[in-house]
Amino acid sequence: MNYYTIAPSPLGEMTLQANDEGILGIWFTTQTTRPDDLGQEDANHPVLGLALTQLNEYFSGKRTQFDLPIAAKGTAFQMQVWQALTTIPYGETWSYQELANTIGNPKAVRAVGLANGKNPVSIVVPCHRVIGKNGKLTGYAGGIERKQWLLERESNQGR
Fold it and tell me: Residue 127: which of 138, 33, 72, 19 has the closest Cα?
């Protein structure tokens, strides 16, 4: 069974979805990648409660790393990319090329970009930390303005 809740954030409402194994997704309400069927609404589900606590700590500057069980579904390649995203240090950015190199597949830059864009767990799996090779902000399912806000917040918080 899947459970969800909708919560406020400094960047607008977020929808969090989980099952008993972990977080399935965290989306801003404007993201088109959010599924239509979220399951049963339950703000008191323990995984959702833990995620809300950690997200609030992140937004208040008290948390730089997340310690949440992730149960997101994707292809083996997507999951490999999403796992690599979790190794990007807080306050840093990587290019898509660096991410492709990290997974041991330097020629897969485009595929890495596509997998990055399908990441269902915003902020916790920090796809916002991936930028173009030229240093420019590139697509973010939550919106470029949110990506910029997150990166500025992290770089201003220090490490």
Answer: 138
Beta strands in 64-150 (DSSP E): 94-95, 130-131
Question: pTM higher than 0.70 for the full model?
Answer: yes
Q: Which domain holds residue 14?
A: 2-60
DSSP structural state of residue 121? B
Residue 34 belongs to some domain of the structure: yes
| C-alpha neighbours within 13 Å on the C-beta side of residue 117 | 12
For residue 115, count other CB atoms closer than 10 A to its CB: 24
pLDDT digits 0-9 by tens, 32-70: 778 788 999 998 999 999 999 999 999 999 999 999 999
Residue 13 within any structural domain of the chain: yes
Active site residues: 127
Whether 55 and 125 map to the same domain: the answer is no
Domain count, the chain: 2
Is 104 in contact with 84 (CB distance < 8 Å)? no
Asked if residues 134 and 97 have their Cβ atoms less than 8 Å apart, the reply is no
Contact yes or no for 30/43 (Cβ under 8 A): no
Beta carbons within 8 Å of 156's beta carbon, 6+ residues apart: none
Q: How many CB atoms lie within 10 A of CB 18?
A: 28
Mark whether 44 and 114 lie in a shared domain. Answer: no
- 141 within a domain of the structure (yes/no): yes
